[in-house]
Amino acid sequence: MMMNTHPPILELKGVAKRFTLHHQNGIELPVLGNVDLRVGPGECVVLDGPSGMGKSTLLKMVYANYRANAGSIRVQPATGPAVDVTRATPRELVQLRRDTIGYVSQFLRVIPRVSALDVVAEPLAEDAGSDEAALAAARDTARTWLDRLRIPERLWHLPPATFSGGEQQRINIARNMIKPKPLLLLDEPTASLDAANTDTVIAMVREAVARGAALVGIFHDAHVGAAVATRRVNVADFRGVAA
Prior knowledge:
Layout: E1 10-21, E2 27-39, E3 43-48, H1 55-62, E4 70-75, E5 83-84, H2 90-99, E6 101-104, H3 116-128, H4 132-148, H5 165-177, E7 183-187, H6 195-210, E8 214-218, H7 222-228, E9 231-234
Parallel strand pairs: 3-8, 3-9, 6-7, 7-8
Antiparallel strand pairs: 1-2, 1-4, 4-5
Helix pairs in contact: 3-4, 3-5
Protein backbone atom coordinates (compact mmCIF):
# COMPACT_ATOMS: atom_id res chain seq x y z
CA MET A 1 0.00 0.00 0.00
CA MET A 2 1.30 3.44 -0.90
CA MET A 3 1.98 5.80 1.96
CA ASN A 4 -0.15 8.93 2.17
CA THR A 5 2.28 11.75 1.43
CA HIS A 6 -0.14 14.59 2.19
CA PRO A 7 0.17 16.51 5.47
CA PRO A 8 -1.92 14.74 8.14
CA ILE A 9 -5.35 15.97 9.15
CA LEU A 10 -4.91 14.12 12.46
CA GLU A 11 -1.61 13.49 14.22
CA LEU A 12 -1.13 11.92 17.66
CA LYS A 13 2.34 11.95 19.22
CA GLY A 14 3.24 10.23 22.47
CA VAL A 15 -0.38 10.21 23.64
CA ALA A 16 -1.18 8.44 26.90
CA LYS A 17 -4.32 7.94 28.93
CA ARG A 18 -4.90 6.57 32.39
CA PHE A 19 -7.98 6.61 34.59
CA THR A 20 -7.90 7.27 38.32
CA LEU A 21 -10.27 5.02 40.30
CA HIS A 22 -11.26 7.41 43.09
CA HIS A 23 -13.49 4.83 44.77
CA GLN A 24 -10.61 2.37 44.97
CA ASN A 25 -8.06 4.43 46.89
CA GLY A 26 -7.00 6.41 43.83
CA ILE A 27 -5.61 3.42 41.94
CA GLU A 28 -4.48 4.45 38.45
CA LEU A 29 -5.48 2.29 35.51
CA PRO A 30 -3.24 2.70 32.43
CA VAL A 31 -5.25 2.39 29.22
CA LEU A 32 -3.06 3.71 26.39
CA GLY A 33 0.56 4.73 26.18
CA ASN A 34 2.90 6.23 23.61
CA VAL A 35 0.26 6.46 20.88
CA ASP A 36 1.76 7.70 17.60
CA LEU A 37 -0.71 7.90 14.73
CA ARG A 38 -1.03 10.01 11.57
CA VAL A 39 -4.13 10.05 9.38
CA GLY A 40 -4.08 11.93 6.10
CA PRO A 41 -6.78 13.00 3.66
CA GLY A 42 -8.45 10.11 1.86
CA GLU A 43 -7.63 7.56 4.55
CA CYS A 44 -9.97 5.42 6.61
CA VAL A 45 -7.97 3.97 9.49
CA VAL A 46 -9.77 1.10 11.20
CA LEU A 47 -8.84 0.49 14.84
CA ASP A 48 -8.51 -3.22 15.61
CA GLY A 49 -8.18 -5.09 18.88
CA PRO A 50 -10.42 -6.85 21.40
CA SER A 51 -12.87 -5.06 23.67
CA GLY A 52 -11.20 -3.12 26.46
CA MET A 53 -8.07 -2.21 24.52
CA GLY A 54 -8.89 1.51 24.45
CA LYS A 55 -10.29 1.99 20.95
CA SER A 56 -13.22 4.17 22.03
CA THR A 57 -10.98 5.96 24.52
CA LEU A 58 -8.67 6.95 21.67
CA LEU A 59 -11.56 8.43 19.68
CA LYS A 60 -12.86 10.26 22.74
CA MET A 61 -9.45 11.84 23.31
CA VAL A 62 -9.38 13.11 19.73
CA TYR A 63 -12.85 14.61 20.28
CA ALA A 64 -11.76 15.92 23.71
CA ASN A 65 -14.45 14.05 25.62
CA TYR A 66 -11.46 12.63 27.49
CA ARG A 67 -8.29 14.59 28.20
CA ALA A 68 -5.00 12.90 27.39
CA ASN A 69 -2.50 12.58 30.24
CA ALA A 70 0.47 13.07 27.93
CA GLY A 71 1.33 13.84 24.34
CA SER A 72 -0.26 15.96 21.65
CA ILE A 73 -3.28 15.52 19.38
CA ARG A 74 -3.11 17.92 16.45
CA VAL A 75 -6.08 18.42 14.14
CA GLN A 76 -5.81 20.39 10.91
CA PRO A 77 -8.92 22.46 10.04
CA ALA A 78 -9.80 23.21 6.43
CA THR A 79 -8.27 26.69 6.91
CA GLY A 80 -5.90 28.11 9.47
CA PRO A 81 -3.26 26.51 11.68
CA ALA A 82 -3.50 23.08 13.29
CA VAL A 83 -5.03 22.91 16.77
CA ASP A 84 -3.63 20.76 19.58
CA VAL A 85 -6.77 19.30 21.14
CA THR A 86 -4.95 18.59 24.41
CA ARG A 87 -4.32 22.33 24.93
CA ALA A 88 -7.29 23.85 23.14
CA THR A 89 -9.56 26.36 24.82
CA PRO A 90 -13.30 25.57 25.16
CA ARG A 91 -14.00 28.07 22.37
CA GLU A 92 -11.49 26.35 20.06
CA LEU A 93 -13.03 22.95 20.81
CA VAL A 94 -16.53 24.21 19.99
CA GLN A 95 -15.23 25.56 16.68
CA LEU A 96 -13.42 22.30 15.88
CA ARG A 97 -16.54 20.26 16.55
CA ARG A 98 -18.65 22.61 14.49
CA ASP A 99 -16.44 22.79 11.40
CA THR A 100 -13.68 20.15 11.50
CA ILE A 101 -14.45 17.00 13.53
CA GLY A 102 -17.52 14.82 13.07
CA TYR A 103 -18.17 12.10 15.64
CA VAL A 104 -20.67 9.29 15.04
CA SER A 105 -21.18 7.30 18.24
CA GLN A 106 -23.66 4.53 19.00
CA PHE A 107 -25.79 6.90 21.06
CA LEU A 108 -28.02 9.79 20.01
CA ARG A 109 -28.21 12.71 22.42
CA VAL A 110 -30.56 15.46 21.29
CA ILE A 111 -32.87 18.09 22.72
CA PRO A 112 -36.29 16.56 23.48
CA ARG A 113 -39.26 17.45 21.28
CA VAL A 114 -37.08 18.57 18.34
CA SER A 115 -38.12 16.81 15.14
CA ALA A 116 -35.86 14.31 13.41
CA LEU A 117 -35.73 16.59 10.37
CA ASP A 118 -34.46 19.53 12.43
CA VAL A 119 -32.02 17.34 14.36
CA VAL A 120 -30.40 16.24 11.09
CA ALA A 121 -30.51 19.72 9.51
CA GLU A 122 -29.03 21.49 12.54
CA PRO A 123 -25.31 21.42 11.51
CA LEU A 124 -26.20 23.13 8.22
CA ALA A 125 -28.81 25.40 9.83
CA GLU A 126 -26.16 26.74 12.23
CA ASP A 127 -24.18 28.00 9.25
CA ALA A 128 -27.31 29.37 7.57
CA GLY A 129 -28.12 31.76 10.41
CA SER A 130 -31.16 33.84 9.46
CA ASP A 131 -30.79 33.24 5.71
CA GLU A 132 -34.18 31.74 4.82
CA ALA A 133 -32.97 30.27 1.53
CA ALA A 134 -30.02 28.58 3.23
CA LEU A 135 -32.28 27.27 6.00
CA ALA A 136 -34.65 25.81 3.42
CA ALA A 137 -31.69 24.22 1.61
CA ALA A 138 -30.49 22.71 4.93
CA ARG A 139 -33.88 21.07 5.46
CA ASP A 140 -33.96 19.81 1.88
CA THR A 141 -30.55 18.22 2.37
CA ALA A 142 -31.75 16.68 5.63
CA ARG A 143 -34.70 15.15 3.78
CA THR A 144 -32.29 13.58 1.30
CA TRP A 145 -30.23 12.02 4.10
CA LEU A 146 -33.31 10.75 5.96
CA ASP A 147 -34.62 9.19 2.76
CA ARG A 148 -31.29 7.62 1.90
CA LEU A 149 -31.07 6.07 5.38
CA ARG A 150 -34.62 4.73 5.04
CA ILE A 151 -36.26 6.77 7.80
CA PRO A 152 -39.98 6.74 6.90
CA GLU A 153 -41.30 10.19 6.01
CA ARG A 154 -44.07 9.82 8.59
CA LEU A 155 -41.37 9.98 11.29
CA TRP A 156 -39.53 13.06 10.04
CA HIS A 157 -41.57 15.47 12.15
CA LEU A 158 -41.44 13.37 15.33
CA PRO A 159 -38.72 13.60 18.02
CA PRO A 160 -36.18 10.78 17.55
CA ALA A 161 -36.25 9.92 21.26
CA THR A 162 -39.39 7.94 20.38
CA PHE A 163 -37.65 5.92 17.64
CA SER A 164 -36.19 2.42 17.73
CA GLY A 165 -32.48 1.96 18.43
CA GLY A 166 -31.67 1.37 14.78
CA GLU A 167 -33.65 4.43 13.69
CA GLN A 168 -31.91 6.59 16.29
CA GLN A 169 -28.53 5.38 15.07
CA ARG A 170 -29.44 6.33 11.50
CA ILE A 171 -30.49 9.80 12.69
CA ASN A 172 -27.13 10.07 14.44
CA ILE A 173 -25.27 9.11 11.26
CA ALA A 174 -27.20 11.62 9.16
CA ARG A 175 -26.73 14.42 11.70
CA ASN A 176 -22.98 13.91 11.96
CA MET A 177 -22.25 13.29 8.28
CA ILE A 178 -24.58 15.81 6.61
CA LYS A 179 -21.95 18.57 6.87
CA PRO A 180 -18.69 17.54 5.17
CA LYS A 181 -15.83 17.88 7.66
CA PRO A 182 -12.10 17.17 7.31
CA LEU A 183 -12.05 14.57 10.12
CA LEU A 184 -14.67 11.95 10.91
CA LEU A 185 -14.62 9.63 13.93
CA LEU A 186 -16.81 6.52 13.77
CA ASP A 187 -17.51 4.45 16.89
CA GLU A 188 -19.36 1.33 15.69
CA PRO A 189 -21.78 3.27 13.46
CA THR A 190 -23.45 0.12 12.09
CA ALA A 191 -23.92 -1.71 15.41
CA SER A 192 -27.76 -1.61 15.29
CA LEU A 193 -28.31 -1.57 11.54
CA ASP A 194 -29.74 -4.13 9.15
CA ALA A 195 -27.88 -5.25 6.04
CA ALA A 196 -29.37 -2.68 3.68
CA ASN A 197 -28.60 0.29 5.93
CA THR A 198 -25.15 -1.11 6.70
CA ASP A 199 -24.42 -1.13 2.97
CA THR A 200 -25.63 2.49 2.77
CA VAL A 201 -23.26 3.53 5.55
CA ILE A 202 -20.37 1.73 3.84
CA ALA A 203 -21.13 3.77 0.71
CA MET A 204 -21.24 6.99 2.75
CA VAL A 205 -17.88 6.23 4.35
CA ARG A 206 -16.35 5.55 0.95
CA GLU A 207 -17.76 8.85 -0.34
CA ALA A 208 -16.16 10.71 2.58
CA VAL A 209 -12.82 9.06 1.79
CA ALA A 210 -13.19 9.96 -1.88
CA ARG A 211 -13.75 13.66 -1.09
CA GLY A 212 -10.51 13.68 0.93
CA ALA A 213 -11.70 13.42 4.52
CA ALA A 214 -9.62 11.60 7.14
CA LEU A 215 -11.57 8.89 8.98
CA VAL A 216 -10.82 6.82 12.06
CA GLY A 217 -13.28 4.05 12.85
CA ILE A 218 -14.21 1.18 15.11
CA PHE A 219 -16.36 -1.54 13.53
CA HIS A 220 -17.63 -4.59 15.40
CA ASP A 221 -18.63 -6.10 12.06
CA ALA A 222 -15.54 -7.50 10.34
CA HIS A 223 -17.25 -7.22 6.95
CA VAL A 224 -17.76 -3.48 7.39
CA GLY A 225 -14.21 -2.88 8.59
CA ALA A 226 -12.80 -4.76 5.62
CA ALA A 227 -15.06 -2.86 3.23
CA VAL A 228 -13.99 0.63 4.34
CA ALA A 229 -10.42 0.32 5.62
CA THR A 230 -7.55 1.86 3.71
CA ARG A 231 -5.29 0.99 6.66
CA ARG A 232 -5.66 -0.92 9.93
CA VAL A 233 -4.05 -0.21 13.31
CA ASN A 234 -4.01 -2.66 16.22
CA VAL A 235 -4.63 -0.63 19.37
CA ALA A 236 -3.06 -3.41 21.43
CA ASP A 237 0.28 -2.08 20.12
CA PHE A 238 -0.31 1.01 22.27
CA ARG A 239 -0.75 -0.99 25.48
CA GLY A 240 2.86 -2.00 25.99
CA VAL A 241 4.02 1.30 27.50
CA ALA A 242 2.57 2.39 30.83
CA ALA A 243 0.44 5.50 30.56
